[in-house]
Amino acid sequence: MHSDLFASRNMAEPATAPGMTLQNSKSIKYAVHGECYARQGAMVAFRGDLQFERQSQGMGNFLKRAVTGEGLALMAVRGQGEAWFAHEAASCFIVDLTPGDSLTVNGRNVLCFDSSLSYEITVLKGAGMTGGGLFNSRFSGHGKLGIVCEGEPIVIPVSPQAPVCVDTDAVVGWSSALQTSLHRSQSFGSMLRGGSGEAVQLRLDGEGFVIVRPSEAVPERKPGN
Fold first, then answer.
1. Are 74 and 65 in contact, with CB atoms under 8 Å apart?
2. Is the separation of the CB atoms in 168 and 202 below 8 Å?
3. Which residues are paired to 215 by β-bridges?
4. HSE value, Cβ hemisphere, 13 Å, CA-based, for 121
5. What is the DSSP letter of 107?
6. pLDDT at res. 144
7. pLDDT tens digits, residue range 109-135?
8. How far is it, in rounded angstroms, from Cα 114 to Cα 74?
9. Region of 18 on the Ramachandran plot (φ > 0 left; ψ -120 to 50 alpha; else beta)
10. What pLDDT score does 131 carry?
């Protein structure tokens, strides 16, 4: 059988070391030797002896339920084998964190991460997401984090002299050392006239960077829809 489908760039080769690697620009392969964590429902294929378990609250630092902007939870992947993760053909990126690094990521952009990373869930109340708040995961420690982004991301430097305001429905993540606040760019009169559709943004101050995607969020498809 002959086809470009079977080109070497599309073939999955056995992993040579534990951990995550890019399978291609739209998926991440994780060679599991023990445990890792992933967005629930993100597994598209696996081989080997792996178990997938939805997380629940109140089971310790690595076993707490992590909620994204649309209420999706994390799952633990345990055993020995290889798993492939993806989310609606979004672009995938791997961030390698070292001690002292800290990255805040919008919950909807988390794909998978090493169990060696610590994380905490926070919510910026009233920031877009149909009024439900912006759910974020702050990652720190030593390990790799897989994130997704619709389209090619835009990484914007932030400095004390040049704070940045971003659409809350487009933000992917930012340096955790940055200070965040809500910024209103419309006058009251403009809002009474119907507004521009860009009433409130997330403002970031300090020294670091912010990552945005070139599109605004759309509601997640619920099971059965």
1. yes
2. yes
3. none
4. 20
5. G
6. 97
7. 999 999 999 988 777 765 554 444 577
8. 12
9. beta
10. 43
- Joined tokens for residue 171: 């933000």
What residue type is assigned to position 125 of the chain? K
Distance, in Å, from the CA atom of 8 to the CA atom of 12, rounded to the nearest integer, reads 8
Tens-digit pLDDT profile for residues 25-44: 999 999 999 999 999 999 99
DSSP string, the chain: ---GGG-GGGPPPPPSSSEEEEEETTEEEEEEEEEEEEETT-EEEEEEEEEEEE--SSS-TTSS----TT-PPEEEEEEEEEEEE-STT-EEEEEEE-TT-EEEEEGGGEEEEETTEEEEEEEETTSSGGGT-EEEEEEEESEEEEEEESSS-EEEEEBTTB-EEEETTTEEEEETTSEEEEEE-S-HHHHHTT--S--EEEEEESSEEEEE-SS---PPPPTT-
Task: In whole angstroms, give the CA distance from residue 52 to residue 38.
Answer: 9
Q: CA 66 to CA 144: how far, in whole Å?
A: 17
> DSSP of 112-168, one letter per residue?
EEETTEEEEEEEETTSSGGGT-EEEEEEEESEEEEEEESSS-EEEEEBTTB-EEEET
**Chain position carrying tokens 């945005």:** 212
- pLDDT value, residue 185: 63
Q: What are the backbone angles phi and psi of residue 63, rounded to the nearest 5°?
A: -115, 15
Place of tokens 């905490």: 120
